[in-house]
Amino acid sequence: MNQNIMRQLILFFEKKAFGVCAKIAEVLGISSNVIRLYFIYLSFITFGSPIIVYLGLAFLMNLKRYLRRNRIVLDTF
Questions:
Q1: Where are the domains of the chain?
Q2: Quick check: 25 and 32 in contact, CB under 8 A?
Q3: pLDDT score recorded for residue 74
Q4: Helices 49-75 and 19-28 sit at what angle, rounded to 10 degrees?
Q5: Measured on CA atoms in the order 15, 21, 23, 29, is the torsion positive or negative?
Q6: pTM, entire model
Q7: Could you tell me which of 11, 32, 9 has the C-alpha nearest to residue 21?
């Protein structure tokens, strides 16, 4: 049961939290694992400030998705 909970937690983070790294990797044309690895290294070196950048990028991605969805809804009226 404990492994099932851990697997669900890992799947949640892969689906939700790693979207920013995957998008950056897609734009740059490199593996998302490399981006994640550098993000972890930078977090340790700079004492967590990349986390603030990461959360800002995640917010912008969600905002962009929200605006697209509303534009589609507004266009139908």
A1: 2-75
A2: yes
A3: 52
A4: 90
A5: negative
A6: 0.46
A7: 32
